[in-house]
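Students often ask why we bother encoding 3D structure as a string. The short answer is that it lets us treat folding as translation between two languages. Here is a chain of 231 residues written in the first language.
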Amino acid sequence: RLDRAKPGVILNTNPIRVLLVEDQIPARRGLTSLLLGFFDMVVVGEAQDGAQALDLCSTTQPDIVLMDLAMPDMDGAEFTRTLCEQFPGIQVIALINFEEYNLLKRALNAGISGILVKSMDGHELASKIRRVHSGQEPFVPSSIEDLLCAAQIPDTSSMEAGSDLTGREIEVLELMARGLTNPQISKELIISRATVKAHVSNILGKLGVTTRTQAVAQALQIHLIDGPGSG
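And here it is in the second language, the structure alphabet:
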């Protein structure tokens, strides 16, 4: 089977071209390190957000885009939809945290080719990239399918925007309205930054918006939260 490259091994002359999309530099470096050891794939570029990734797709011509599902400005679902329209030949694999239920459902509908949890090891990551590149059916790990079923995510298209926000998501929204950043919200609520990021992604999805500013504006307009200083 294909495995990590070893000294003296002739490199694949037609490797799988992978573009990484991750806003956290340490995570991006970690993914690059995981993939560098496999001689049948090459990292052709790294992007910190969806807009930069779309630009790189035209210049680096990747086979696979490996992206963090929860990204700033343009989330994974919106990015996937845009990518599929502009570059229909490129496949997308999403990396997720288990908290990102709502965003995950939207991304699946947008056309991603596979999902991996962020705790996967290098061999699992490489195996899934090869699977997607070879044209096999899109994959969703059974553990995630079970979580999606257990979560019983409602179809929000027929619901009033924001009506399905959880109490914790309302708390995060209120702190966003006060201008707090994700690290500040993490400290305020005593939760991890990854969890805050997941909550923000879910909030954007449930409100049907793409930026934090839009989320706060809509939440104020429909009286989900009070304006800063009103309490």
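Translate back mentally: The longest helix spans residues 193-207. Keep this in mind for the problem set.
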